[in-house]
Amino acid sequence: MDFKQIQALIKEFEKSSMTVLEIEQEGFKIKLSKNKGEVITRVEEALFKEETKTEEVKGYEVKSPLVGTYYAQNNPKDKPFVTVGQRVETGDTLCIIEAMKIMNEITAPVSGVIESIKVSNASPVGFDQVLMVIV
Predict the structure, then answer these.
(1) Where are the domains of the chain?
(2) pLDDT tens, residue order, the chain (135 aa)
(3) DSSP letter, residue 17
(4) 30: helix, coil or strand?
(5) Which end of the chain is more exposed for a tag (fewer CB within 10 A), N or C?
(6) Eight-state DSSP code of residue 7
(7) Domain 50-134: which topology?
């Protein structure tokens, strides 16, 4: 199941009168539940799981606070919010994560220089996935 199919499934679930939906097939598992007007979503798939790395990371890892789509700029004609080697200050916009048609601005938690960007523009990201490293 790809990211767009997951988004469509969530959207249809929100519209439905169902309160719980759980799907499991071929290494993919998703559970959706409505509790007190909230939608709780848990997605497990290799697509969203980052492999554990044994190398020690120097610097601050900026991680995705939610599952969504990573965007490096507001629209394709704009320049990216940040590039490798660029200095950022605490609070500067680093990227946008789109989740369920809501654009979530991700800001720099620390000041420093962007050492690396770990994801491609318009690619799906998982919760707690490293987006970039600031040193």
Answers:
(1) 3-47, 50-134
(2) 677 777 788 888 788 887 777 777 777 777 777 765 544 455 555 455 544 455 566 889 999 999 999 999 988 889 999 999 999 999 999 999 999 889 999 999 999 999 999 999 999 999 999 999 999
(3) S
(4) strand
(5) C
(6) H
(7) OB fold (Dihydrolipoamide Acetyltransferase, E2P) (2.40.50)
